[in-house]
Amino acid sequence: MSNPYAWNIVNPELCYGRDKLLSELLSGLPGSPRYSFGLAGGRRMGKTTLLRRVERDLRAGIDQWRAGGLLVIPLYVDGLVLPRPLADADVWAYLLRELQSALPDQPLQPPAPLDFKAFIETVKPVLANLPERPRVIVMFDEIELIIVCDWADSFLGQWRALLSNTPDLSEYFTAVFAGAQEMASLQRDIGSPLKDVLEWRNLHSLDYEDACRLMQEPIELEWPATFLQHAYSETGGHPMLLQYVMQHVCAASDEAAGQSLEQAVAKFARERSWQFGEWWGRYCSPTAQRIYARMPNDGRLLSLRALVSEFGLDEANDALKILQHVGLVAAEEDGFAFRYGGEMFRRWYQVYGTLAESPMHDPELYLRLTKVETDLADKYLSAWKIYQTDLPNYSGAAGEMRDILTHLLNKFAPDDQVSAEPGFRLEPGEKKPTRRQRARYAARQWYNTERIKEIVSDFDLLETYCDQLARSATHVYKVASDLTHTTATREMAYRVLKQGESLLAQLLPDT
Predict the structure, then answer these.
(1) Per residue in 43-54, pLDDT tens?
(2) Residue in 367, 362, 387 with CA at minimum distance from that of residue 377
(3) Interhelix angle for 374-387 vs 363-372, to 10°?
(4) Which domain holds residue 46?
(5) Residue 268: exposed, middle, or buried by beta-carbon count in 10 A (0-12, 13-18, 19+)?
(6) How much of the chain, in percent, has pLDDT values that exceed 90?
């Protein structure tokens, strides 16, 4: 049989289990009233597949919309292909180029440099004078690559204005912002510019019926119920795992389907179990890990009431969102009961899934901070002590991590030294070095040693590495700073502390 399954390639044809959401997007983005969306889902949960399907269907319906007097202009923005280092002007310029391609006969030549104001002044007269009423639909995929930039807040605030508060222009725009865990903070944080502007939707694993459709419809083959149940039991309906096993099954004969399914499961365990380790260690907080451990081994349901009684309302809800987001737990009974999803991950967990019951500070990081300044080491201990205390608000832990990063930048990358670096240029609209520039300078100073030269011999690669560290630093600082000024749950504080530790481990000089 032909094999349409490729777990690591985006295929809009294999968009299953998202029918209701797809319908919402296709009606709300070009519709009246118009709606914009925030789309959150774990890695390989199908966000890109869904967005590409939306793009494809919008383009296929352009003539139909045009018959009703509406000119639909879909613009897809892949965050992974934007330039590095990234400036907000790069994004506006990319959008303008895409819009010019869609409207080749229109004068869309902006002044330089291009910023939000120039973008508005350039597109407003063009869109207003088109013979048909335009609807520019911008789809941001991998929005995390923008969120980590130090200009992200102002950029998202500009999008808030563009979508809801720019007279004679807002009516022409809708958007989708798609990302992984970072999208949840945009939805939850009180200060988020897009919190009340977008319709928020989450992608979870497929239910049994949709998983069966994915396993049968693309190959026009009806599998025995025993095979379908076995495949669903193993994968838990996770789209990536389903496509992985089906790719191997379809490469075998029909008669050997059951055997090839077992072989695919074993192959994943041998070659890609690191994926499970990343889900568990990187995305699951200690509470999420403990809740997953409470799920009965026989697949029975665990009630939300029992989890709230043990972990508290906010803690339980935050942890369950993470587990569903990653695809490790499925909700039943309208979200009042839960079960673990997928024997593939469950077997991995039973062997390797150690619980972070009582996360403590990293002694090596503490020592390295002590070498820099004892006050910083004390702040690091203080952050973890706050986390381990029973409190209604854990913003103090985030504040301590923010202060550590602030002090390190002040010490290792003062404005005058950064400005004096050969080739330094202020970023557009800035009067002093930005936090990203200072973090990048600090990274270059710390890693300009014989040790790093032994590891990275290519200068361009070293520059890219330092730039990545700088983006991470600005992202961690931003999240920590935001949480300092609002109520932070223990889950939020834990993520900030672990992200901060990861950054410090890369930036601090070795002991």
Answers:
(1) 889 999 999 999
(2) 367
(3) 150
(4) 18-203
(5) buried
(6) 49
